[in-house]
């Protein structure tokens, strides 16, 4: 019997050289990381990884997830996000921004990403109604929008619906609200193609819910958790169950709501990768491991030129 059926690269005790992976496989792995991890860690491993990280296809989706401690970080997340958007070269289709979003950043993204399909803003208290309105006017192809714990009103929602006629998914998550149907009426009047609607903690009443059911005839998933002004019983409950495939009730569990309460776990972390396993001399010479000031674009252009 053969001593081992494993290929040579998998022999016990033999280390893996991550830098020699084919670019296609490296790209698949790095796509599992967020933008911060790519810019602060992955692109500094070696030449080959940096080339992959520079490819515009790596930036069709930008995930700027963080734990809300951005003010204590050694780098500026807004500048980093702008750098990531620039790398997409107009190919950005999905972006997630947590905590640090501003009107200026949102419009920077919209101006350079007219093909954007999905926008997620979580706890971005600095984004205003005017900022959102100005941005969505430049995003006619937007199909998915999440606004979680942002200080935005039904006025901006109405403009979103009017400017983005293909809107299919809307997630509007708030702290539990007093009775107010402004959001619901804006949705009913301007977003008839919705298929997925999450109104976590919204203040809509039975009147607002009926308006949505009257107008959004393609609705398949309706999440009303913590919408305590809705009396989902009797005829209204029957109407929801007959019209909508999946309905989450006001008192249903909220354990699966992702609102930035815990850190994501990336399946391909760097715990088992030696960041200096290849091209140590190169890293020392150009000091890539210390390059975290994204306000200095000339520095990054210099590195990029040297790697071509």
From TrEMBL:
InterPro entries membership: F-box_dom, Leu-rich_rpt, Leu-rich_rpt_Cys-con_subtyp
Protein name: F-box domain
Domain F-box stretches: 15-62
Any Pfam family matching the protein: LRR_6
Signal sequence annotation: none
PANTHER family: F-BOX DOMAIN CONTAINING PROTEIN, EXPRESSED, F-BOX PROTEIN SKIP19-RELATED
Organism: Arabidopsis suecica (Swedish thale-cress)
């Amino acid at each position: 019997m053969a001593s081992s059926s494993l290929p040579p690269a998998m022999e016990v005790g033999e280390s893996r050289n991550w830098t020699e992976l084919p670019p296609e496989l490296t790209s698949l792995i790095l796509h599992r990381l967020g933008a911060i991890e790519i810019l602060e860690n992955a692109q500094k491993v070696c030449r080959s990884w940096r080339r992959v990280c520079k490819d515009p296809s790596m930036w069709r989706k930008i995930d700027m997830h963080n734990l809300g401690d951005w003010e204590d970080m050694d780098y500026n997340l807004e500048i980093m996000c702008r750098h990531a958007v620039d790398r997409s070269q107009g190919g950005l289709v999905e972006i997630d921004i947590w905590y640090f979003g501003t009107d200026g950043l949102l419009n920077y993204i919209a101006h350079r990403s007219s093909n954007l399909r999905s926008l997620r803003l979580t706890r971005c208290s600095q984004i205003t109604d005017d900022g959102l309105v100005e941005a969505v006017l430049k995003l006619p192809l937007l199909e998915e929008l999440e606004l979680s714990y942002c200080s935005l009103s039904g006025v901006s929602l109405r403009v979103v619906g009017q400017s983005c006629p293909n809107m299919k998914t809307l997630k509007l998550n708030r702290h539990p609200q007093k009775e107010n149907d402004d959001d619901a009426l804006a949705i009913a009047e301007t977003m008839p193609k919705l298929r997925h609607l999450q109104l976590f903690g919204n203040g809509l009443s039975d009147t607002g819910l009926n308006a949505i059911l009257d107008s959004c005839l393609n609705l398949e998933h309706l999440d009303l958790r913590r919408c305590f002004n809705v009396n989902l019983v009797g005829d209204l409950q029957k109407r929801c169950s007959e019209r909508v495939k999946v309905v989450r009730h006001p008192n249903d569990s909220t354990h699966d709501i992702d609102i930035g309460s815990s850190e994501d776990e990336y399946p391909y972390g760097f715990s088992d990768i030696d960041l200096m396993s290849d091209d140590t001399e190169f890293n020392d010479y150009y000091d890539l491991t210390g390059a975290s000031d994204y306000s200095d674009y000339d520095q990054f252009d210099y590195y990029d030129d040297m790697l071509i």
